[in-house]
Amino acid sequence: MTGHAESGSGEGQEGLWRAVVWGGAATLLLAPLVAMRFTDEVQWTKSDFVVFGVMVTVPLAVLELAVRATVSMPYRAAVAVALGAAFLMTWLNLAVGIIGNENNPFNLMFFGVLAVGIVGAFIARFQPRGMARALVAMGAAQGLAAITALVAGHSAVLLNGIFAAAWLISAWLFWKAAGDQAVVQNTG
């Protein structure tokens, strides 16, 4: 990545950040449990809680690794944007589906978009310039999924545009992190 986090005055802020983020995740996971006590409209099974727990824990653990591995704010922001968009796309796709309902086979394309990003990240070895390319590829894959859905008679252009924009914003942030890294290497 782009450098190791330094010890010092930021430790208190990082501890607060971790408490807020992980506490928010726990609250999000517990919300359906509380809602089930008051309404019959929310009916989650144990497997629903397990899937959602994994959906929340994995991106937060990856974000935690990124925060520990780099002091680059653009890199951290790029990771946060990409993981946030991936989480929302997965949640939306599993809950109600992006195309039609959650059982529509066209929705599997969106997991392909995520696969492009995951494979790209490993190929890039999580280096910022390569990550930027992987996120541009995700944006292109998102556009291809939207076009495929349109050809098949389904419309989710706005939603696909929002996700494509998130991938491209993340790519821009990774590109900025790569530029910052090059400046530090040239001056250091």
Number of helices: 6
Run of helices and strands? HHHHHH
What is the CA-CA span between the terminal residues? 17 Å
- Radius of gyration, in Å, reads 18 Å
Strand content: under 5%
What is the number of domains? 1
Helix/strand-derived category reads mainly alpha
Low-confidence region ranges: 2-9
Largest sheet: none
Helical residue percent band: over 70%
Mean pLDDT: 90
Annotation, overall tally of beta strands: 0
Shape: flat
Précis, in short:
The protein has 188 residues and is an all-alpha fold. The chain is built from six helices and no strands.
What structural keywords apply?
membrane; 188 residues; 78% helix; disordered N terminus; mainly alpha; single chain; transmembrane; transmembrane helix; 6 helices
Q: How is this structure best described in words?
A:
The radius of gyration is 18 Å and the shape is flat. Helix 1 runs antiparallel to helix 2 and helix 3 runs antiparallel to helix 6. The protein contains 6 helices and no strands. 26% of the residues are buried. The chain has helices spanning 11-38, 46-69, 73-95, 108-123, 128-151, 157-187. It has one domain (11-187). The model is unreliable at 2-9 (pLDDT under 50). 78% of the residues lie in helices and 0% in strands. By secondary structure, the chain is mainly α. The chain crosses the membrane at residues 16-37, 49-67, 79-100, 106-124, 131-151, 157-175. Keywords: Membrane, Transmembrane, Transmembrane helix.
